[in-house]
Design brief:
Protein name: FRG domain-containing protein
Helix content: 40-55%
Structural class: alpha+beta
Strand content: 5-15%
InterPro entries: FRG-dom (IPR014966)
Pfam family, one: FRG
Largest sheet: 3 strands, antiparallel
Strand order of the largest sheet: 1-3-6
Radius of gyration: 18 Å
C-alpha cells in the first residue's frame, strides 16, 4: 500500500496534528455529533457500534476534511504519485515523498479485527472501509491506517528493529519532475476529476487543462 505526500513530513493523522488528542472523547462526542449529519446524506443505514459501519463513517469524515485518527493510503502507486505531486509548488529544497507499507507482513504479526481507542497499548490497524456514502473511495483505491499513535513512523521503526523485518519504505522524488509525472498520470486517466468525482473534480480538471502553462 502507498501514500503520497507533497512534503517529506512524518506520518501523523489529522487528528493527532490537533491539540485535542483524546480519542475516547472524539468517538463519544465528535462522531456521535456528526453521525446524524452523515446519515442524512447517504441511503445505506449505517449503525454506530458495528465495526464495519464505524470504519465507513470515520472514512467519510476523513475524506471530507474532519480530523480523524486515520491515515489515507491507496493500493495504487500511481494514485499515491498524484497526491504527492498535485499541489506541489516547485522548490529545489522540497522532495515529494511516497511511503510504501508492507501490509501483508504487518498483518501477519499485528493484524487485528478491531481498533481500541484507549491510548494503551499502541495500535496501528490497516482498515479497508465500505465505500458507502464515499464515491471517492473506489477511484482512489483507498484504504486506511487507524492508530492511537502520534508518531506512526517512529512506532513502525521500533517494530522493524524488534522483528528484524522491513515494513516501511520511503521514496523521495525530485520536485522538478512534476510536469512530466502529472502529464503521464493524465494519460493513464489519473486526474483530480477521476479521483474526486463531482463538480469540484470537473472544474479542477478544466482549470488544470486550460490554465496550466505548457511544458
Amino acid at each position: 500500500m502507498f501514500r503520497g505526500q507533497a512534503l517529506p513530513l512524518k506520518l501523523v493523522s489529522s487528528f493527532h496534528r490537533t491539540w485535542r488528542k483524546d480519542l475516547l472523547t472524539w468517538i463519544e462526542h465528535d462522531v456521535n455529533a456528526l453521525f446524524g449529519a452523515v446519515m442524512e446524506r447517504i441511503s445505506y443505514p449505517l449503525r454506530l457500534g458495528d465495526l464495519g459501519h464505524n470504519s465507513a463513517i470515520w472514512s467519510i469524515l476523513q475524506h471530507h476534511g474532519y480530523p480523524t485518527p486515520l491515515l489515507d493510503w491507496t493500493l495504487s502507486p500511481f494514485v499515491a504519485a498524484y497526491f504527492a505531486f498535485q499541489d506541489l509548488e516547485f522548490s529545489e529544497e522540497v522532495s515529494p515523498r511516497i511511503h510504501i507499507f508492507d501490509q501483508a507482513e504487518w498483518n501477519k504479526r499485528y493484524g487485528l479485527r478491531a481498533f481500541i481507542a484507549d491510548p494503551s497499548p499502541p495500535q496501528l490497524v490497516v482498515m479497508e472501509s465500505y465505500a458507502i456514502g464515499n464515491p471517492r473511495s473506489g477511484p482512489q483505491q483507498a484504504l486506511s491506517i487507524v492508530t492511537n499513535i502520534a508518531d506512526v513512523e517512529a512506532f513502525v521503526r521500533e517494530r522493524e528493529e524488534a522483528d528484524g523485518q522491513n515494513y516501511l519504505t520511503v521514496c523521495d522524488l525530485p520536485a522538478n519532475d512534476k510536469p512530466r509525472i502529472i502529464r503521464e498520470l493524465e494519460l493513464m486517466g489519473i486526474t483530480y476529476g477521476s479521483l474526486f468525482p463531482g463538480l469540484d473534480g470537473i472544474c479542477r480538471d478544466m482549470r488544470d487543462r486550460n490554465f496550466t502553462r505548457p511544458i
